[in-house]
Amino acid sequence: MTPIFTSTPQRRPSAVFVVSKPLRRRFNRRGKGPGYHISLEYARAGCSALAVSSRTRADLDALASEIANIEQKNGRKMSVLKVVADVQSDTDVARLVQQVRQKWGRVDVVIANAGVISVYIEPSVSSESNLPRGIVQDGDWARVLDVNLNGVWRVSKAFVPLLSETKDGPQTIISSCSMAAHSAVSDLTPIAYNLSKAAVMRLMECVANDHGEEGVQAFALHPGAVVTPQTQNHAGNNWSGILADDEALAGAFCVWLSKEKREWLSGGFVSCNWDVEELEAKREEIVKGDLLKYRMVV
Prior knowledge:
oxidoreductase activity, acting on NAD(P)H, oxygen as acceptor; oxidoreductase; NAD(P)-binding protein; globular; NAD(P)-bd_dom_sf
């Protein structure tokens, strides 16, 4: 499901992801589904404060309850900010960053995780997949691009100034991307989804290049192949056995990625399925070749 860059694929968190000391930083989380578990992994890692956002209050309340359980188990309290917001709304995103600024005056890590996929073809016209194939079948183009690409742009535009000010933190923005960013066919995922993720990958490279001098680092993350409220209805032969990653894997990878500065990876595509020890061993190769980024071969 993901481009092979390390020889050992990871399907669940390993001991390498364990943080030896509590993270004493502020974090921001957006979205639900995988984002729910990303938030929980930061809570388990011991971050001191967490802002969580979703379109629905019920999702936030459920997440806050899980965080409270982790607080009790860890024996430490976190400062938690819950904000109902929609990434399709400039006003909502501006209000979110304003509340984060007012409450803490800083942000260390931003996870832009909100995402959708094109509506299913009902009834399905193929035994391979119930998702639209080709540009003719996909009538959900505008919504998918607005959430997946414009939503990340809105969050990035709103939070990069605050990230730039937080000089004593990791100054990290991680956007949910996908292996679909590298696909030029729609046999598995629709064109609108693929293109939105390809654009997100380039957007993160632009953020890293344009704001790297301010200390900001940006990453496009493939969060694995996980059963979520969105993917659980994917059907067809193409999807058989694919959604098998541990739901905690993406969150553990995010904690590893953001627990310190990793300028050598900033601006690139990364996958939570990659072995982080092998990835670190390839550091010189990545820097020298400017790898993990889109390039035209001529």
